[in-house]
Specification:
Largest sheet: 5 strands, mixed
Strand order of the largest sheet: 4-1-2-8-5
Number of domains: 1
Strand content: 35-45%
Distance between the termini: 26 Å
Radius of gyration: 14 Å
Order of helices and strands: EEEEEEEHEHEE
Oligomer: single chain
Low-confidence stretches: 116-123
Amino acid sequence: MPVYTLYGDFHDDQIVPFLLSVQFHTGELNWSTPYLYIPLDTPKHIHTINELDEDVFSISILLSDLTIHSDKPNEIGVDLQHVQARHNNIASTDEITTLLIRLCDIEEVLSSQPTASCEAHTTGTCERQ
């Protein structure tokens, strides 16, 4: 089961999240599936960006890697085949334990849909109505 964590910086004495970390155990992420769907309404821990573990093998998920599915209204999809193609020089994707996704990219994908609303930049939550 992945662990979802938000990372951010202080703004007006509050941590304002800007990065979603999805952390797996080694080998837990199934790269043979075309898409990984991440629930957006799952409670997440919020930490400062200084607490991000730089020793884990992580990769950034780009806006072009993200998608939505009409049957999964409160989830954001990650095109794992697209990610693998971009990182084809990695010897083993099984070593990747963490996906890092900018919240503004999630917001942009959700805002491209007429029924989407996202307050990730202030609350760390996204919902589709």
